[in-house]
Amino acid sequence: xxxxxxxxxxxxxxxxxxxxxxxxxxxxxxxxxxxxxxxxxxxxxxxxxxxxxxxxxxxxxxxxxxxxxxxxxxxxxxxxxxxxxxxxxxxxxxxxxxxxxxxxxxxxxxxxxxxxxxxxxxxxxxxxxxxxxxxxxxxxxxxxxxxxxxxxxxxxxxxxxxxxxxxxxxxxxxxxxxxxxxxxxxxxxxxxxxxxxxxxxxxxxxxxxxxxxxxxxxxxxxxxxxxxxxxxxxxxxxxxxxxxxxxxxxxxxxxxxxxxxxxxxxxxxxxxxxxxxxxxxxxxxxxxxxxxxxxxxxxxxxxxxxxxxxxxxxxxxxxxxxxxxxxxxxxxxxxxxxxxxxxxxxxxxxxxxxxxxxxxxxxxxxxxxxxxxxxxxxxxxxxxxxxxxxxxxxxxxxxxxxxxxxxxxxxxxxxxxxxxxxxxxxxxxxxxxxxxxxxxxxxxxxxxxxxxxxxxxxxxxxxxxxxxxxxxxxxxxxxxxxxxxxxxxxxxxxxxxxxxxxxxxxxxxxxxxxxxxxxxxxxxxxxxxxxxxxxxxxxxxxxxxxxxxxxxxxxxxxxxxxxxxxxxxxxxxxxxxxxxxxxxxxxxxxxxxxxxxxxxxxxxxxxxxxxxxxxxxxxxxxxxxxxxxxxxxxxxxxxxxxxxxxxxxxxxxxxxxxxxxxxxxxxxxxxxxxxxxxxxxxxxxxxxxxxxxxxxxxxxxxxxxxxxxxxxxxxxxxxxxxxxxxxxxxxxxxxxxxxxxxxxxx
Length: 746
Description:
Radius of gyration: 32 Å
Catalytic activity: 2 chloride(in) + H(+)(out) = 2 chloride(out) + H(+)(in)
Mean pLDDT: 77
Strand order of the largest sheet: 1-2
CATH topology of the largest domain: Clc chloride channel
Number of helices: 31
Oligomer: single chain
Strand content: under 5%
Membrane topology: Multi-pass membrane protein
Shape: elongated
Protein name: Chloride channel protein
InterPro entries: CBS_dom, CBS_dom_sf, Cl-channel/antiporter, Cl-channel_core, Cl_channel-6, ClC
Number of strands: 8
């Protein structure tokens, strides 16, 4: 009867999981742990919907039912994502999902401020999950934020401290009725590691044990690399065969994983579990756990599961307990699990957790990895005690080191994970062995593949920037990696051209350029119209055409006066009568500041080679959001007026719609006169960061990453823009491809 009740309970949990796994389809980005998405966001990539209110609601509901449904997932990863969402939305004082919640709060209205709050929110999530405020701060620094400053450190630490003590206050009050006692610092507590007073030979760890810890770190790195490799193959299979199909298939996959987990747990506990005698030595951990204020000690969580009286099932004790209780069993129970049971439990848990991570339910990876690694460490301790005769070792220490080794081999974190584990154990003496184990596990795993979060980021095609480039990349220059085919605007551009540019491209910023240096000074003052700026001599046009034809072949040369003089000497040979049609075509196309493009055409298809690579004097950058805002608010002037008559918008008015700016496709074109002209000079950035074409790639990368840039113009010695560098041009794959091309041309 007990078996049937338990079986019905697990199948009912599976049904509830099927019903509530659909929350990820209301907001698909809510699936998974959320750490890869937050890592991308803090790296400078805007993932759609990653910090929406709907996301955190779906995340909370989904992780509640996925953990209650018996899946081998954790709630710590989703807590980090949830904290980041709170950090992103709270200082905005408005919500897209709840449009009635909106206050006139003019502060923190930029991407940089929002990233800082997301960093603090992610750190608060770690602090609340593990009771580790310092570890949360270091996690945000090591694994998340790309742009860090000294002033942000204490703010993030204060936020983490506040999250830890807030959770501690409410948990202690609710569980013990003692408000203000602060007895439960985090959701996951490892308890106190302490040898029994009766065992004089026992030590938490000795110098001799460091050799075993290093060996465990190597094995943990290998196991982590194997876990990541298998999960990567599963993720690729899902991308090819599951995700393209109807959404119901994802729900069925989650149900299949839940049912398989349930069957494996029951069969393994019945067939493979051993009935072991309850020994008095197992009570040595009662006092230590009572000091942590836990309502139930370690012994109360053991499961009999069809075993006779005074015995218990060791496999069922690990499988049928919550993951946190199973971790405490492995950390603090002494001599209660056989090597065979630990080996089978590790194998089954390894495979099932690898299969589970990646399905369409909110799921974390920290606790499953800790539990899997703790079983591995406890197995090592049992073997050393039974076959080598090392009676002085403390099994809980080896279980902790095994958990650190396996988790480090999976996620490849070092300093933040060390501090998190130290704060969770309240034992500073574990600092050195944990740090050594994590470093060895990371080095071993990195020899084979990347960490699990980096793997999922790369599978989604997100252009994530690493901390630095490889040394051999310095053989490349900015001119080797830049995008030379530019889409630009003029300081004074017709509405027709702006709409055409915005509707036929997806770029987020556009260079503001002029072509005629002779008229440039008067042109920038606004006293001369675009129509007057197209009066070029035939020789001038053909000179630039010949010059740019040479530039398009090398992409490294400068349009200098020497080139112009050389071209001017051959004007007669470059002006055959048949060029008259080309000249007339270019002049007619320049009647408007930008060629008229249809929605199904791109600039590269419409432009000629002469138009694509003509000399362009660089004046600044203007964002897509700024151009759309100017069009929506009707900021323009007519040809019969001066640009001084154009309405001016303040900075507050320009950023009023942040972070959801209007879309160009939602613009009502009937309200606009296509012949009107927009002066973009008051709103562009006249002094953005720029680099020379001969700048080393490492310098370009460091400037781009440390300053949090999205666009980096390449400007030559005479002030002409010759290309632009974006995040895509600095990814590892793109740089590798350009380096191979560089070697082929040598």
